[in-house]
Every structure is written in structure tokens, then in C-alpha cells.
Amino acid sequence: MTKLKTICVFCGASEGDDPCYIEAAREFGKLIAENGTTLVYGGGHIGIMGAIAESALVAGGKVIGIIPEHLQLKEDAFFKITDLEVVPDMHTRKKRMHDLTDAFCTFPGGFGSLDETFEMITWKQLELNNKPIILSNINGYWDDWKKMTDGLIKKRFASPEDANLYTIVDDIHDIIPTIEKELSEGATKKEELKKRTNKIVP
């Protein structure tokens, strides 16, 4: 099993309408720290975003926040985390998150979280990114996403294989094991391809 060193979590800067979202974020932040994994996230101190970062810190974990200049006040930048990077814009934020992490996980969130997730899925579809992407389906949050994806496939705007670009996980305790399993499978495939082609596989 390949060890997960860093995980990027996309999540809302609000708490949502159900306390279960914040509770799950706090529990997952603790799980990340206990696994010895570094959390990469949006750098805010409010909502689900703040809950997961604070929980990881309290549990002794390392937390890296990436926040654009114009959101430092709106998302209440978390200055007490391990490392806070202030970047010029949203595009730089997403690229920096991608470069720092081994895998992505999206918790409940709004348009910003959707934007970040869609971009990583699109990059994976275009083979610009082969990192695991997990949707944390707390309280069935991503059920409608699955329906939308099924509709895209049915109407032939996406292929059936595109449904494999990400994984929906219902239990937060299964997120890290799922990612580490996918990382191990990916490493094995690369090694097999390298042996067959005698080439370096990026």
C-alpha cells in the first residue's frame, strides 16, 4: 500500500445546514494528522474549511493553506497554520494545490468547491493529472452529482469511463484507505508499463 503523504481537501467556507458536515470535517482532520499526512487546503479559518484545518492542527498534523490575495479577509485567512501561502489569483491557487498534493478529496461545499473539483477531474480526463479524486458523500451530499454524471453519459456528452475519474466514498474513515489503494494500483500500472515499453513513465 502506497503511503499518502499529502492530501488536498476542497470544502466550503460555510458550515451548511447540518451539523454533521462540521463534525465529519473535524473527524477527518484528526484522521489526516493521525495518518501522518499533510493537509493542503484553501487557507481559510471559517466553515468546514476552518474546522478541518483546526482539527488537523490540534491532532499534531501539518497544514498548508493556499489563499488568493482577494480572499484573505472574506475567508478569514488562518495565520496559525503550519504554512500559509498567499497567491495572486484563483488559477494560481488551484495549480499550487495540485502541485503540492498526492490526492484530492472534496467535502460538501458551494460553487468554489465545485469549480476546484471539476478542474481536477477535467485535468485527469485530459491526462494532465492522474491523482485520486474522492468525493466525501456525507449525508448523501454528492448523490445529485452522480445523477448529473449519469445524465451526461446517457446523453453521450461523457463516456462511461469518465465515471471512473473520481470515487464517491460514503464513510470518511474509508477515504484515506481508498486513496492509498488507488495510489498503489497506479504505481503498479506505471511499473508494468515501464517494463513493457522500457521507457520512463511520468
In short:
By secondary structure, the protein is of the alpha/beta class. 44% of the residues lie in helices and 15% in strands. It has a 7-stranded parallel β-sheet, with helices on both faces.
Overview of the molecule:
The structure is a single chain. This protein is of the alpha/beta class and about 200 residues long. It has a single domain, classed as Rossmann fold (3-Layer(aba) Sandwich), CATH 3.40.50. It has six helices and seven strands; from the N terminus they run βαβαββαβαβαβα. It has helices spanning about 20-35, 45-60, 90-100, 110-125, 145-155, 175-195; strands at about 5-10, 40, 65-70, 85, 105, 135, 165-170. A seven-stranded parallel beta sheet has the order 4-3-2-1-5-6-7, sandwiched between helices. Helix 4 (about 110-125) links the parallel strand 5 (about 105) and strand 6. The chain starts with 5 loop residues before the first strand and ends in a 5-residue tail after the last helix.
